[in-house]
TrEMBL record:
The organism of origin for this protein: Gordonia insulae
Pfam families: AMP-binding, AMP-binding_C
InterPro entries assigned to the protein according to its UniProt record, in alphabetical order: AMP-bd_C (IPR025110), AMP-bd_C_sf (IPR045851), AMP-binding_CS (IPR020845), AMP-dep_synth/lig_dom (IPR000873)
Gene expressing this chain: lcfB_23
Family in the record: Belongs to the ATP-dependent AMP-binding enzyme family.
EC primary class: ligase
Signal peptide: none
Domain called AMP-dependent synthetase/ligase: residue spans: 2-331
GO MF: long-chain fatty acid-CoA ligase activity
EC numbers for this chain: 6.2.1.3
Segments forming domain AMP-binding enzyme C-terminal: 382-457
Sequence intervals crossing the membrane: 152-174
The protein, known as: Long-chain-fatty-acid--CoA ligase
Length: 465
């Protein structure tokens, strides 16, 4: 078990696949983690080695010391080397000129990667993904993703997160596309790279879409090489997606997945007509199930399966997914695994969805994040999408909080556009004019930034503190 603590750099691919080729397991660590958070993951994963780079050395060294990883097993890729610092560097490892190890593993059962679930609804858990899981998912998305050796893909989503690991790093290597690698998201640098390297496709999370739709600086760059943009990791609103597509003159798509699904389970195809003989669905959907997978919607109250509707959208139900991309389980957590994957092999996603007559899926919200107001279900994502249409709102998040009488009510956290003046009453009135009474925002708090995971998910648990 080898910890990898690094932002997006070309060497990430070498390290990650080197670990897998050697028969080890890579546990990829969030590059923003503090030393205690790194130590917590290393301890849980029982890592014997940690690989990092100089800018992250202090927190890596502190974590390694806490968990008992020796100096020679803390590798600093761009460091001074073992002779000077006690820590091997890339030259020490590559210079040895050793033959590739003779490894025999079962790709269906051997854990290749151990990313940790984002912890947006609780403590992060180690997600055990086999070689078969990772390879299957790259193969499953290939006919829908449409990536070719001619594509130039901007890689700003972190490789340590499963979205970046599979959809960018592994898919681009497999399809022989070219990656323009960014260690962190910076809007100006993002735009400059697209213009300079003639990037053809981009994979983003919704916060990037907000910037692309609303920031005036976007107009200063030639982004005409971009033909496709895919959003994932959190719900993308139809209006926001259309605004980006119109402004940048590109094909905007959406996908759905989770770490436990390696991660993609649903996708709007790059060319829906060619792939399925259909027109593109609305951007508010996440498209259809990927090949070689089975899906069902289940009413959480009754356990009954929800059938495909004759027209319109079905009743909401929890989305269950089965296929070769379903994880082996949670590391050392049999109970959590049993709670998530049933005896028939279906993974219970915890997400509420609806489906149309063609099987196209629309994610409604997290089952655990639905706000219950006077018995009515209020999906936070719906209110967030509405709030983002307000010209003075730059970003937002909605959670359920208890009022003075103990009733759960929707509360909006709002980040205003620079220089904009906005009151709580104006926010409440804006929403009230557009939704059913039970969905009204009943409390507002203005903050500087919405807390989000590296993959773009809103960290609602941080807002509840």
């Amino acid at each position: 078990m080898v910890g990898v603590l690094s932002p997006n750099i070309p060497a990430f691919a070498t390290v990650f696949h080197g670990i897998l080729r050697a028969g080890g397991t890579a546990t990829t660590i969030n590059a923003l983690f503090t030393a205690p958070e790194i130590a917590k993951q290393l301890t849980d994963a029982k890592a014997k080695m940690l690989i990092t780079i100089s800018p992250m050395f202090d927190q890596a060294a502190a974590a390694a010391k806490e968990v008992g990883i020796s100096d020679e097993n803390l590798i600093v890729l761009d460091g001074e080397g073992q002779e000077k610092s006690g820590h091997p560097n890339a030259v020490d490892l590559l210079g040895a000129g050793l033959p590739a190890p003779d490894v025999t593993i079962d790709p269906a059962t051997h854990v290749a990667a151990l990313p940790y679930s984002s912890g947006t609804t609780g403590n992060p858990k180690g997600v055990a993904l086999s070689h078969r899981n990772l390879v299957a998912n790259v193969a499953q998305i290939k006919p829908l993703q449409g990536m070719t050796p001619d594509d130039v893909v901007i890689a700003v989503l972190p490789f340590f997160h499963i979205y970046g690991m599979t959809v960018l790093l592994n898919a681009a290597l497999y399809n022989r596309g070219r990656l323009v690698i960014m260690p962190r998201f910076d809007l100006v640098e993002f735009l400059e790279n697209i213009q300079k390297y003639k990037v053809t496709s981009a994979y983003i999370a919704p916060p990037v879409a907000v910037a692309l739709a609303k920031h005036p600086i976007v107009d200063n760059y030639d982004l005409s090489s971009l033909h496709t943009m895919m959003s994932g990791a959190a719900p993308l609103d139809d209006e926001l997606g259309k605004a980006v597509a119109k402004r940048l003159n590109l094909h905007m798509l959406q996908g759905y997945g989770m770490s436990e699904l390696s991660p993609v389970s649903h996708l709007i195809p790059f060319d829906t007509q060619a792939a399925l003989g259909r027109e593109d669905p609305p951007l508010s959907s996440t498209g259809w199930a990927i090949p070689n997978s089975e899906n069902k919607l289940v009413d959480p109250a009754t356990g009954d399966e929800i059938e495909l509707p004759g027209e319109g959208l079905s009743e909401p139900g929890e989305l269950w997914v089965k296929g070769p991309n379903v994880m082996l389980g949670y590391l050392n957590n049999e109970q959590a695994t049993a709670d998530t994957i049933d005896a028939d092999g279906y993974l219970h996603t915890g997400d509420m969805a609806q489906v149309d007559p063609t099987g196209c899926v629309y994610i409604v919200d997290r089952l655990k994040e639905l706000i219950k107001y006077k018995g009515y279900q209020v999906p936070p994502a719906e209110l967030e999408a509405l709030l983002l249409t307000h010209p003075k709102i730059a970003d937002t998040a909605v959670i359920g909080v208890n009022d003075d009488e103990g009733e759960e009510i929707p509360k909006a956290f709002v980040v205003t556009q620079a220089g904009a003046e906005l009151t709580a009453d104006e926010v409440i009135e804006f929403v009230a004019a557009k939704v059913a009474p039970h969905k009204k925002v009943r409390a507002v708090e203005f903050i500087d930034a919405i807390p989000k995971s590296a993959s773009g998910k809103i960290l609602r648990k941080d807002l509840r503190k």
